[in-house]
């Protein structure tokens, strides 16, 4: 089945020379570069990075086994650690410069645990007794000490995205000192302790190990992701868990999330598209967690279950030259979750024996089929970079009238989508309104609902819903399905309204058309009566066109035109077309537009009624108007009323003055009082 | 001042001449007669007279049969309910006993009985009969059954007729819609959709809040009848049982259908009213009430609802409907605060403030600040005389053009105005002393602007 996985390895892995007796392989997390160092560099160092620019190869002198090797971020200086007390540097200004220069750590008995490039020309040495920050000056082939900090250190973790360095100290290793690097220095953040599941009584020994701690950016916040192997207890089965500390405002670490793994053994953590992925070697499966999804909480820590069931990564086959026929390529399937795997942040998996570096990627389409809870699925997808298309697909399937999803779920899904939509609009609005004056340091941060959830990666707005979801499902709306489509549309409009988002007219048009199609006129009437549908001229015209199938639509249309306040012309047209000439006259008299009114239009309509009384009244009305306007009752040339003046004369003046009398319609017979 | 009597029902009968075409078979024509203890002779005589009147008037205007017969003491309303089936109602005209020159005499207030009003009442009676029993025409070859059904229906229905309180509103037989903001309305609508989607046997449904309609998916012809049945009959009766202190407090209860506490009981499900819709469909009427909101569900009748159905519906609706009820209450109180100048109950109670009745022919919406509730209990804020006058204005309107205006002044310095436009009717009662026509006309205009600002209503 295609949906047996929701993670896959990137299709074009970076291939490098596998680890062997002569070749050592190093990986630099910051630059994502793999170094294959052959015979200490004499027979070559091959560097493979994600791009051509970050890939190179060179030779260097063998000065002993390499412990660590990393380029500076601008690729101009290479740092090589071969001893416990010093690091050597090589300039790569224009090709390799053979002259190495060296820097020892300051403390005499200090041992360098590792080094990190914190900026293009700054490097920090982490020793067992503290850290030392240097500025590298390649031109002078020397380093200048900038700052140092004395602290006993067990191990360290660094994240180049956040420039955050965690130093483990203390006997158990769980006392963490975070440092935030800035150009030319670093900030000491508040120290914190990572909770240990069990503390050995005597003697104190290192309990928290480097391999169990991951530092990554999740939803724009630096997170310390700690694997905890809980010893089996009576009240619960064995099972490891992941504890997450978030660095709040880059100052204090706060215990914030707990991920239940319910498994034991070896784990590795990746972060892909803000999802925390925990690989489990024993079961050869991976779990995904989304700390943004709602979970049970005790007020401080939110407890999370995996987003969905654990599944293995999609099987990966590598094309390698065939042994038998050299020109042919053979497909070799790679062992997944192999013991040779090393996982790096945020999303890198390296098989050192195979010489492959992959990125872990999400298959959102499959995730959508595996995840049953549609609300969680939507919540999850709106946070994914590539979630939009998948989400629209999910919605189209969810709202398929033939499936007939429970409207309660539909409502909830819409509410979740529109909450994201509203937040997006609010941010838009604030950014538009942010004038230079209001961004002064004295201005308070923009007020409004403080949303704890991060800004969503995907916003499904009304036009997306309309074109990609509603129109396709409305086309399927036949018979009973129409009722469902109407219900869905109303639910969507309701959800927009609850989120105070103005509804676009095309949604109303679709709603009305679907209702008309279903002949649900009385229901439509009520929607209009309660002003659920906003007034507009196009809508009024649509209603006018419906008059033949639903007579009341005419009244609704007139009401709407009246409310618009800008459609007096249209109202007159409608009345004239309905031969309600006197009503039209009253109307223009009421709103004071008599002077501008086109007499010709009225006289034409009046003549067409065939009712002489009406023609006479209208003619006299306009004569009076002319009198008031110009002092005489005649029509001007520009009004083109000659035809009607002639008609009037023929009808009423030629054969003497026979002004029609306004007789009430004759009632039938003498029985009127008795019988009606 | 002597004693007075209100308008009252003298008799009400149905006949079909086809059942007794030969002499001596006259009794067979009579399908129903109230009062039932009337002797056969009188029944035959009255039916015969009506037949004669119909025949006689037919020669003058065959297109429009006779509708009313005026005598000094009675008023007979004649309505061909279905082809061949005639319904007749005779009313005693109200009287005032007066003394003149030391002599007692009775003055008959013939002008107080409006034909249109009572014709509407009679028509409504038959429509209501049809709602519960279907068409007589379908049973034309079974007069015995017709007799039984008419007897069964009218024996219960006649006592609920409030003829003395019949007025203009009976002509309209409209529905009071609850004024509501769009969002709350959408919430109601969404609840309705969820109910109908979760319970596919629900054919259509409506929601009421107190005595006002919030949403209806039922055909307006049927809804109108069901609305009146609910508001004037079912809900007030239910309210009485509800305030019994012995009843346990529960979220929602069935008004028709099983009592919630007894949903387990198989038998209690059998007493659900069946309705005959104008489309010819036959449905069950299930009414469920939670707080002040009432959900009225029409169930397809091809299967009898099971106790299981009622249990599920109760579980689904109870709290949701209560929540909607609270929301509606909040929305209502909000809107009455926002518009103190409009028709809040307080202002309509004082006798001198202007009152109005509004009716829209197209969606059958009515609104009245003259009637204090929709239950036809005679709770009105202006004098009976003025209310009767409104009926007369309406009758007059038939002779006017589509768009017109009538203003009347009464002997005791009250004014009554009627405006008709765009298939809507607007009646105003003003108690302005010493006013002139222009002032009244302006006041009517002002009320139109205040209450009808969002609709097209030409001046």
TrEMBL record, chain B:
This is CCZ1/INTU/HSP4 first Longin domain-containing protein. One of its GO terms (biological process) is vesicle-mediated transport. Residues 12-134 form the CCZ1/INTU/HSP4 first Longin domain. Residues 353-446 form the CCZ1/INTU/HPS4 third Longin domain. Residues 202-318 form the CCZ1/INTU second Longin domain. GO terms for cellular component: Mon1-Ccz1 complex. InterPro entries: Ccz1, CCZ1/INTU/HSP4_longin_1, CCZ1/INTU/HSP4_longin_3, CCZ1/INTU_longin_2. Belongs to the CCZ1 family.
